[in-house]
Amino acid sequence: MVKDAEEYAGATHTQDLLAHAYRTYYFGAMLAAYYELKYDRESHFAAALLHDIGLTESRIAPLKQCCFAVSGGRQARDFLLDKHHPPAQAQVVGDAISAHLNLHVSAREYGEIASLVAKGAVCDLFGFEKRKLPESFKSELLRAYPAGDIRAALQSDKELKPGSRLDIGRKLFGGLPERIWIHDIE
Mean pLDDT, to the nearest integer, of 96-111? Predict the structure, then answer.
């Protein structure tokens, strides 16, 4: 599953989006260690790497038709099923991707994988829970997977589905902040 997810993400993601996906995985994994969570690392990796597949040119639904996280979850699940991965594991990955935009993704309600993908992504973009992680880890991660122009990688000029989580977020907050915290790490 790890190899399949990595090859698929490498073929579909821009370099900046792929770097965000890797940082999402590593931030989630470090937070899992901090909280001493037990989870399926293979499913976590696949979900983290593919969590923004719905924003890529390979997306299965136009952004104005469906929330990119929901369509991306379906796309990732179907991809993993086509590669003959266990249906239950593929569903966990798809559900984690679908849930990652929710404001709160508790492990109790959504499962560990969904919680870790959401935590990893918001840690990468907004710095939530970053104080729980060693400074040296954050610096090394950014050297390995530079932020680049992450705002451009995540923001689409395409029309969004009215009422989708991303549409509401853009209206409420005006999109991503001008400067994402990770740019301040040396």
Answer: 92
